[in-house]
Write a structure and sequence with these properties.
The protein is α+β, with helices and mostly antiparallel strands and 196 residues long. It has a single domain, classed as NADH Oxidase, CATH 3.40.109. It has helices at 3-9, 23-34, 54-68, 71-78, 114-132, 142-149, and strands at 46-51, 99-106, 136-140, 165-174. A 4-stranded antiparallel β-sheet has the order 1-2-4-3. Helix 2 (23-34) runs antiparallel to helix 5 (114-132). The longest helix has 19 residues, at 114-132. The protein starts with a helix and ends in a 22-residue tail after the last strand.
């Protein structure tokens, strides 16, 4: 598949089947992670944690579920709440995906801020690999942000990260509940200017 065709099939999937992804698919996604560009080639500053344990994901969901109940905060984040089904009791920030891959970064003091660029590159590379495999995936920010916002419910320690690493982004991956259809691509979503 050429890259533009792949881009037209890339979606943020928020509804998955219960079927676990294959080991081969996971390996391909992790190869994509390891092929992503990293600032100053410091791959040692990146750590990946693959979670396929529902109990762990449920524990990591607690802060997000509590924050989801705060309608004022959610309105600031989402905007028009009418477009979102607000089911407080059944809210899962991972959309019941069978696999969630967390990308952590060593805390920075030499190049502050580069950690966000690095984890975004790694996560996007995995996201595109998942699309290429016909899998659904979606970036995971809210659960991690919620644990930073509600320290009493910060359960990131269960990820068993190396010392001085912090999970900054994740990717939920699984088989999409509905077929992913090709969409038309345009160049008018982001504002631009040209200096010629």
């Amino acid at each position: 598949m050429d890259y533009v065709d792949l881009l037209s099939r890339r979606r943020s999937t928020r509804k998955f089947t219960e079927e676990q992804i294959t080991q081969k698919a996971l390996e391909d996604i992790l190869i994509a992670a390891n092929s992503a560009p990293i600032g100053s080639n410091r791959y040692k500053d990146i750590h990946i944690t693959v979670v396929q344990n529902r109990g762990v994901l449920d524990k990591l969901s607690e802060a997000a579920a509590k924050r989801w109940q705060d309608k004022e905060t959610m309105k600031k984040i989402i905007g028009d709440m009418k477009r979102v089904e607000l089911n407080v009791e059944k809210y899962d920030p991972f959309y019941l995906a069978p696999t969630v891959i967390f990308v952590s970064h060593r805390q920075q003091d030499v190049q502050p801020g580069i950690e966000y660029s690095n984890v975004a590159c790694v996560t996007f590379s995995m996201h595109m690999a998942a699309a290429n495999l016909g899998l659904g995936s979606v970036f995971m920010w809210f659960a991690l942000e919620s644990m930073r916002e509600i320290p009493a419910l910060d359960h990131t320690s269960i990820l068993n990260l190396p010392k001085d690493f912090e999970p900054l982004l994740g990717l939920a991956v699984g088989y999409p509940d509905k077929e992913i259809r090709q969409r038309e691509l345009t160049a008018d979503k982001i504002s631009m200017n040209f200096l010629r």
